[in-house]
Amino acid sequence: MVKYVKETAHLYTDEWLGYNKVVKMYQRDFVNHSSREYVQGDVYTNMIEGFGAGLKREVLGVYHSWSKKYLQDYVDEYVFRYKTRDYSDSQCFNLLISNACVRTKYRELIDGY
């Protein structure tokens, strides 16, 4: 976590004990789901939990499994789908085409297999 989260970050978490290790490194507020507390002022984890659940469904429903090599690509695709979930088909297509400026060669796809 330290590798990816800036030291100035303010964490909003649930009560999972694993987060206790980061208390000394980050400012942290949490909600206690076991006490049926889901929101405390601006602190809640519902959005990230919903996002994570959707990502898991994507693995099971679309790809069935992921390889480590392409993990970031799978996550990037899901993020794109999530952020454009309210777009029309034509809006998604136009956005995809306008950002499709990288050509991937077959050799790059199979490299390492």
UniProtKB/TrEMBL annotation:
<feature type="domain" description="ISXO2-like transposase">
    <location>
        <begin position="3"/>
        <end position="82"/>
    </location>
</feature>
<dbReference type="Pfam" id="PF12762">
    <property type="entry name" value="DDE_Tnp_IS1595"/>
</dbReference>
<protein>
    <recommendedName>
        <fullName>ISXO2-like transposase domain-containing protein</fullName>
    </recommendedName>
</protein>
<dbReference type="InterPro" id="IPR024445">
    <property type="entry name" value="Tnp_ISXO2-like"/>
</dbReference>
